[in-house]
């Protein structure tokens, strides 16, 4: 993997620290912007706190697989060309695929360098304060692209510190496998993609699992002869701007549907897990010492998730009918288990629970950016990544433009738009963006 290309000339001298464009973050989103800037001879620098795309190996559990089909994996100048386009790469296979992409070009990349403050420069443009192996440094630029990820700060409840210290607590990004946990039962809190799949991982390892579920919807893995996400792609859902969905930009707050690509892909059916011994609860609301309380929402949450599952299938049915597609017959999910009651309390000690895994998401943290570009929730106010603050853009945000944003499927288009915007604003070399696209 090419991680340390030659230092650009403007960084060769201690007296010169100005770079026309700086991309903060060396994940696949930031490097995709770099790919387009480099293809058009735009002088720029990518600044990465760790190593390129390190989160794929550092924050995914051992049995992680993609939940989107491999054919979704496309980046500038590069697309999945393996033998199983309808399969689901494992974590290690994704890391290897990304390494192959990075070997196809040489981004001007500075690793081990964290940006601690981004502010407006005295003479226009931006000033970046950084810290790294060589101590603090100040860089300036005309354009800056923030590619640090959508929501980088793991969320844990405010009451977490009041729980019995004998019970280990970790966030989903710290989970690797069952063996790293102490003997005993495990409580997973959250039923989004990470929570549901980690609960399944532990369940398959024979652990006693308790799962507190939220409002996450679910989707069928396969329906009427194809992967559901392939149907949805054909229907154009991943390319539809967020503003055109019911509720408009509120779509960006939606939790992703839970499903898995493990063992070739299958549904995640929490009701089936309950039949096999997993204990389910509604939304966790409070806790102290070894006692937890839950909202009585288990039944309604399961019913709502199944309703979304069947609604998506119905939308696919309508598409098949409109297009006259020959496909296997339609079907509907029928519950295989129903709770007899909605449990509202749990004694961790009595249940033998020794570990809690928090899988309730992440929150934004842009306090290091001194610019009027954020709403009351601390999220960037942007359109396709471009803010109202001249020269400031974002990339890699969930629902930044479409459902595909923040996924491999939509990164190429989003990065290309950001690069085009930078060139159109005249911050780089003159001329239009060459339409060199991957896949």
Automatic annotation (TrEMBL):
Signal peptide start and end residues: none
Keyword Coiled coil attributed: no
InterPro entries: Auxin_biosynth/cation_transpt (IPR050982), CHP04046_FMN-dependent (IPR024000), FAD/NAD-bd_sf (IPR036188)
Keywords: Oxidoreductase
Keyword Oxidoreductase assigned: yes
NCBIfam families in alphabetical order: MSMEG_0569_nitr
Natural source organism: Williamsia maris
Protein name: Flavoprotein involved in K+ transport
């Amino acid at each position: 993997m090419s991680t340390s290309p030659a230092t650009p000339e403007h960084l060769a001298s201690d007296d010169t620290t100005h770079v026309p464009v700086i991309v903060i973050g060396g994940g696949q989103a930031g490097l995709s912007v770099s790919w387009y800037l480099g293809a058009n001879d735009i002088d720029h620098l990518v600044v990465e706190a760790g190593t390129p795309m390190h989160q794929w190996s550092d924050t995914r559990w051992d049995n992680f697989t993609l939940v989107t089909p491999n054919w979704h994996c496309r980046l500038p100048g590069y697309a999945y060309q393996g033998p199983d386009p309808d399969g689901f790469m494992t974590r290690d296979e994704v890391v290897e695929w990304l390494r192959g992409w990075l070997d196809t070009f040489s981004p001007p990349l500075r690793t081990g360098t964290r940006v601690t403050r981004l502010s407006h420069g005295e003479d226009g443009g931006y000033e970046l304060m950084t810290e790294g192996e060589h101590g603090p440094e100040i860089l300036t630029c005309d354009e800056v692209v923030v590619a640090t990820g959508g929501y980088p700060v793991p969320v844990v409840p405010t009451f977490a510190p009041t729980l019995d210290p004998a019970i280990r607590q970790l966030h989903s990004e710290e989970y690797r496998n069952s063996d790293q946990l102490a003997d005993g039962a495990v409580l997973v809190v959250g039923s989004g993609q990470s929570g549901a799949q980690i609960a399944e991982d532990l369940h398959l390892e024979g652990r006693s699992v308790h799962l507190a579920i939220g409002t996450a919807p679910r989707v069928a893995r396969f329906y009427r002869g194809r992967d559901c996400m392939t149907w949805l792609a054909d229907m154009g859902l991943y390319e539809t701007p967020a503003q055109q969905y019911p509720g408009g930009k509120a779509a960006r707050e939606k939790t992703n549907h839970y499903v898995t690509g493990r063992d070739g892909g299958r549904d995640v059916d929490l009701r089936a897990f309950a039949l096999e011994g997993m204990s389910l609860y509604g939304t966790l609301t409070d806790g102290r010492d070894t006692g937890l309380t839950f909202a009585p929402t288990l039944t309604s949450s399961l019913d709502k998730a199944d309703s979304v599952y069947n609604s998506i299938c119905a939308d696919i049915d309508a598409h098949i009918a409109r297009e006259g597609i020959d496909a296997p017959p339609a079907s509907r999910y029928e519950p295989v288990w129903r709770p007899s009651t909605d449990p509202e309390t749990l004694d961790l000690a009595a249940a033998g629970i020794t570990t809690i895994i928090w899988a309730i998401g992440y929150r934004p943290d842009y306090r290091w950016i001194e610019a009027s570009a954020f709403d009351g929730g601390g999220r960037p106010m942007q359109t396709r990544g471009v803010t109202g603050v001249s020269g400031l853009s974002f990339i890699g945000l969930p629902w930044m433009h479409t459902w595909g944003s923040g996924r491999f499927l939509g990164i190429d288009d989003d990065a290309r738009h950001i690069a085009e915007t930078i060139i159109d604003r005249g911050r780089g070399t003159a001329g239009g963006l060459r339409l060199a696209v991957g896949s």
